[in-house]
Amino acid sequence: MKRIKSIKEKKKDSLYGYAFISPFFILFSIFGLFPIIFSFYLSFQRWNGLGEMEFVGLRNFELVLADPFFWKAMYNTFVIALMSTLPQLIIAFLLAFALNSTYVKMKGFFRVSFFLPNVTSIVAVAVVFGTLFTNSSTGLVNSFIGLFGFEPVNWGTSEWGVKWAISAMIFWRWVGYNTIIYLAGLQSISQDLYEAAKIDGASVRQQIMHITIPMMKPVIIFTVFISTIGSLQLFTEPLVFIGTTLREEGVTVVLYLYREAFSNNAFGTASATAVILFFVIIVMSVTNLLIANRLGNSRKKVS
Amino acid sequence: MKNTKDLIYKTILYALLMGGALIALFPFYWMFIISTNPNHVVNSVPPAFLPGNMLVDNFKNVLANIDFFGALWNSIIVSTSITLATLLFCSLAGYAFAKLEFKGKKILFIAILTTMMIPPQLGLIPSYVIITKLGWLNELKAVIVPGMVSAFGIFWMRQYIKEAIPNELIEAGKMDGCSQIRIYFQIVIPLILPAFATLGIITYMGVWNDFLWPLIVLKDQSVHTLQIAIRSLNDTYVRDYGMIMSGTFWATVPLVLIFLIFNKFFIDSIVKGAVKN
GO CC annotations (chain B) (predicted)? Predict the structure, then answer.
């Protein structure tokens, strides 16, 4: 009697299981899974979005990889990723460290101020920074660097000006986010470790090098991962900042993809670009993981 | 000696934090200053640091160029409906993945996790084609319906439900003759409200600030969301910075206010979301 009931119940449970995941899975198949698979298919077709598709083999990949503008976009994406991520994480770490200090008061105020930029939309950030980083020699940033004796920079039109301006936007919007994440990590380190180190006569610098940084490794790896993957998908900042003219100083891979698809109606090459970006991100993720593993192992060997 | 060293250390810490806060807050102040001043002030010497008297005039110019309140309304509709649907669908599926036994559960869950790693741009063009074929271009549902799919949401809900709800509670419910639907609504939901708050905030903010997808499928001015509308202000042929900044300022104010009121909640959500990842 009891066994029969439990089998019946199991069946009922599994029916409910399917029923409960079905709203998600129906939408997910149409708007999540299918587009991903279809993207690979499209990357082998020539198609303008309206007429017949034509199978062209690897021709789309050849076209994209032979386009200097694509390589410029790839170069820009990586350079901006590096320029924005590295300073961002270092400053975020310093800020989190300062904020975690027992000396500091008004912690709530600092936390909220640092985080505020992250709530702001990227479009708003790009518009506001567009008025700070103007080409005019009397623009605010140009006036400011003038105080230190620097020549005015054409932020909107020069090779490095555009990159610095875009990096500044990313830096501003994300430094607080990373500070908060690091702070959470720092607070999870047991105070006893520091006490013990102090008793052993360790200086602040030694405490940072031998306790804080090793304990923070997983958090640091997470932020490096998120920032690099995020900056490879850079789109909104350059689009709003440099406008529809798509100046080559600021074009990124996703902007290139966007232009191929929605200005040139070349859905095949656009899909090929998406597939290439996908593999670049996979390679970057795997590299990140390998480095992370390596660091983890070397630490185990030491201790 | 020890005291002076402490003092120096303290000064460095505060200088660092004050500098950080200044850089974080200044663009907001600048936004306000420019939005209350005439156009030419943007590059004036010396730089403008005081509010002007164009607050109302600049915003009137915004209203002459874009349907600001229409766009605000569209943003509210899109963000609210996606958030509500995400909470419902993700908690239902999350509950099934955490507590119910059915065939193929593991494979389906792994499929979801895998798509979390895939950059959203990969599916961009096919998604656009689907929306075109459905005839949804220039309709809000083109953003709302695909937006309801959140792999992260499922993952998040499953983890939370697994930890927060003891199996005994569900068994007890069954003993009392509750159906799974009643168990979900009367036992599960009340216990996962904190997870709803976290996922809700992350989802709402993400949708509110989303740009690329709405830009592609919402071309017509009447369906523009705030972000798209602000961007079109910025692209006008003759740039009136007072007007542009006024639009940007008033588009930024609502979310900043909500953040300031619920800041503890927001920051906790982001941290939790990141840690779980």
Answer: plasma membrane
